[in-house]
Structures are given as structure tokens and as C-alpha cells.
């Protein structure tokens, strides 16, 4: 299922030369100096440095000195460390096993993934291969496939939503090209400037430098024209959790074997107006309201999958299997909920005003929306092998 925006790029740094799959890009001295300047902004000094089993390096940065606070709109922003959200959640017993043990930064600091020059060069080089539609600040998600969408909120002509929630089944689809992407996510969009927030999991080598499945976030305040990025590649998202960073590697399910899913929620704090991210009922942090000029409420909600490929064949979506094979084979999303009152309770989504779309049914399909009750709640299956779409 596809949507719209995201960041981009692929390449390998050799001295000041980026070699990519379609040619060679030279990096000028000025560009190299600009990359160094960006790295100094992104890689704040930490009180502690941690290297994970996956080889990722994190700096434990003072929560009040994290890179996102360099955003000009957040010049005088005070980090919200006490959540005023009305709702309370019960932590799932299986959540820690999915998220792992955490990074373990000291209280008062947050884990910031150390950005390498190669990360920035991949982003820069890959964007040069793309059209204007898929520029630096846009999701590289070309064919819109299998979007599950809510259009209206009960009987309101202009819908308003204040939160979205679901459990996302996690897989690790095998991609045939390093510049492809396969993503499962939930998504809020709203405002005349098309502000939006996306969260979920993705396999996207240009961003993460590997073919593993990563937790990701994305935001933009103007449909990706000049603002927005993944995770913390630009100032914006405020981390508050000392143990769990954005971009962490997730365990994946196996076809007709062990299944993993992860609860994700984005909700507006009714008192501050900030948009909070919860993963497995653990608060990760928030997008400050100052980022979104007209994002007092979301106008559209999405659940589903997205794929991107610059050429045929297209990559698998979800588990790579069609919905008719059933849960355990096809990817699922369960317990779909939304919040349509500012500070109100999360409720099961309704049948009214919703559509289920499968844009490339030969490659990807989406099953019907079903209320299975109990563990499953409102659920649907989706995905497919891709191919010549």
C-alpha cells in the first residue's frame, strides 16, 4: 500500500567520490564542508557512547541539548518530560522482547544514532537519481498500492482526528535492488499545508545502510516540499526515552512460523498540542506543535503498506504473500483504532466512510476489513510478491 513522501539516497563513499548503481557522482570540496557542518549539528557530544550488537553507535545526549532543538521554530522550546495525555495504557508483556533491552542511556539523556558521512552522501547521491517528485524530503514510494483509508469521521463534513493506533505485523521482505523500499505503517495527514506524520517499519537500505527491518518515523509540514525527514536526520522530533532510539532494528516474523507484531500509536496531547509517539505503549517522544502550522487535527488516517522501486520488477510488500493465504502467511494489521475527540478515548474504527484500496492487484492485494474481536479486534490482511506490476 503506498502513500507519498520520504527521504532518499544510495551510494558508497570513496574519498570524495560517491559510486552508485547508475554511475559516479563527485563530491565537491564545498559539498564536503557542508556535510561536515551537518554532521557537527547531528552528532551532538554525549555523556556516554554505546555500540550495539548490530554495530550501531549511539551517543547519550543531554535531553535538553538534542539536535532537534536546533530547529529555528524550536529556539525557545522547553522539552516536555511530563506527559499530560489523559489516556493510560497497559503495557503488553511481549513488548520488551520485540523492542529488545534498550540502549540504556543515563536518565536525563537520550540515545542519538551517530550519523556517518556516508549516511548523508547516500541521501544526497540517491536524490540526484530521482525526479523532482521524489526529492530529498519526499517519500520514495512511487506506485500507490493497497492504501487503507478513512475518509470521514462519523457525520462530520470536515473530519478531525487526534490519534491513530494499530498492531503492525513485522516481516523482513527480501528486496532485489538496494534502492527499493518496502514499508508497513500508520499515517496521519492534515492541514492546508499537508502536514503529516508516518510511523511503522521499513526495509530501506538507502536510509539505514542494510537490508534489515527498522522502526521508522517520518514527518513533513509542507508535503515534503522543503521540510521533513526520517527519524532524526533533521531537527524536529524530540526524543524523551533514554532506552529506545528511533531507527532501531526489529525482529521479523517467519512464513507460517513465529509471528511478531508491534503496537504503535500517535496521539495529540490535548494540553500542549504536541503529537506523541508510543511504541509498545512506551513513550518515545513527540513532534512539537510548532512544526505544523495548521496541524491542529488530522484530516485523514491511513493503515497499510507501501513499496517503492525505480524500475521493474517491484519488491514484495508485507510478508510477500497474498491475503488469501491467511494470518501467519500474509502480513496483518490488527486492533485498528482512532481518536476522534481531542483527549478522548481510542475507539475501534467504524465501517462508515472508509475505503480499502489495492492499486496493483496483480502484485499486491488487501483483504476485507473484519472485526474478529478479542486479540484481533478490527483487522485486515495485505501484501504480495510484487513483480511486473
TrEMBL record:
<dbReference type="Pfam" id="PF14365">
    <property type="entry name" value="Neprosin_AP"/>
</dbReference>
<keyword id="KW-0732">Signal</keyword>
<feature type="signal peptide">
    <location>
        <begin position="1"/>
        <end position="26"/>
    </location>
</feature>
<protein>
    <recommendedName>
        <fullName>Neprosin PEP catalytic domain-containing protein</fullName>
    </recommendedName>
</protein>
<dbReference type="InterPro" id="IPR025521">
    <property type="entry name" value="Neprosin_propep"/>
</dbReference>
<dbReference type="Pfam" id="PF03080">
    <property type="entry name" value="Neprosin"/>
</dbReference>
<feature type="domain" description="Neprosin PEP catalytic">
    <location>
        <begin position="140"/>
        <end position="389"/>
    </location>
</feature>
<dbReference type="InterPro" id="IPR053168">
    <property type="entry name" value="Glutamic_endopeptidase"/>
</dbReference>
<dbReference type="InterPro" id="IPR004314">
    <property type="entry name" value="Neprosin"/>
</dbReference>
